[in-house]
Write a sequence for this structure.
């Protein structure tokens, strides 16, 4: 997460900035494609947008799945909107997506990247799902980060978290190859400190319910991820009650595994997992 961040605004500036009528950032629109009787809910990460999981969602749709990638509350519009959201808002939107697919599909799988994976696990603890894929999702945050976020929400409402990594060039190249508008990553450069606190609270809730997760899991993480270490994968695998936990460790990707250099491997891993977990069971007379 690049913490501690650079400070760019004072408390007074953050509190007094007016919010205009909401608009959606180009590329941040939700994605839905009706397919077969297996539904897949694809959830993006913190401060990102459906663009982060759109290529994955499109890949799954080509496999014949019904796919929905919602835009989580406060995301893909204006960072000031995110400052007014709670983790409960994000989870409620996740529930909405689940029920939308459940009303149309016989089987439902949830796939989440980063914070989206945290929401996927929380969902798995509370509703009947067939499987879940968790991609580069944190299961804990260092105490120092939590303390700083709690202090920052009162002192510095927004921080500079712009992405100057090579990933933007990777995304732009792929967008050009796909014939899409070349806009790079669709995310916030300004992060709400209050929203970061909500993210940390979500992690606290998640750790409490991990033993309630019993469905088959796929965990995809990368050795080169500087944001979420493999320790989160190990913690999740050790604390869920699932009898089947598949693990895939990438070698070259950073944190955004759904858009980085090994994204095609991620797509194949997720699609194969979904196919195995939702395949019709042989008839037993």
């Amino acid at each position: 997460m690049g913490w501690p961040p650079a400070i760019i605004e004072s408390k007074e500036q953050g509190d007094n900035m007016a919010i205009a009528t909401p608009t959606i950032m180009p590329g941040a629109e939700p994605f839905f494609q009706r397919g077969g009787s297996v539904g897949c809910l694809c959830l993006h990460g913190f401060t990102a947008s459906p663009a982060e999981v759109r290529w994955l969602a499109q890949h799954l749709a080509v496999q014949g799945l019904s796919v929905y990638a919602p835009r989580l509350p406060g995301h893909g519009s204006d960072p000031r909107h995110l400052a007014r959201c709670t983790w409960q808002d994000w989870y409620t939107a996740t529930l909405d997506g689940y029920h939308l697919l459940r009303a149309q599909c016989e089987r439902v799988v949830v796939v989440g990247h980063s914070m989206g994976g945290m929401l996927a696990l929380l969902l798995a603890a509370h509703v009947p799902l067939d499987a879940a894929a968790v991609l580069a999702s944190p299961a804990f945050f260092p105490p120092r980060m939590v303390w700083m976020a709690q202090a920052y929400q009162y002192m510095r409402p927004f921080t500079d978290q712009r992405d100057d990594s090579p990933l933007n060039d990777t995304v732009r190249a792929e967008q050009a190859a796909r014939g899409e508008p070349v806009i790079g990553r669709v995310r916030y450069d300004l992060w709400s400190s209050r929203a970061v606190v909500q993210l940390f609270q979500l992690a606290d809730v998640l750790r409490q319910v991990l033993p309630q997760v019993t469905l088959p899991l796929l965990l995809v993480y990368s050795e080169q991820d500087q944001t979420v270490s493999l320790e989160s994968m190990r913690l999740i695998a050790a604390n869920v009650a699932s009898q089947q936990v598949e693990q895939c460790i990438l070698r070259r990707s950073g944190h955004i595994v759904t858009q980085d250099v090994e994204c095609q491997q991620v797509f194949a891993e997720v699609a194969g997992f979904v196919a195995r977990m939702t395949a019709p069971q042989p008839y037993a007379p």
The chain is about 40% helix and 15% strand. Confidence is low (pLDDT under 50) at residues 1-16. The two ends are 54 Å apart (CA to CA). Residues 29-278 form a domain with the Rossmann fold fold (CATH 3.40.50.1820).
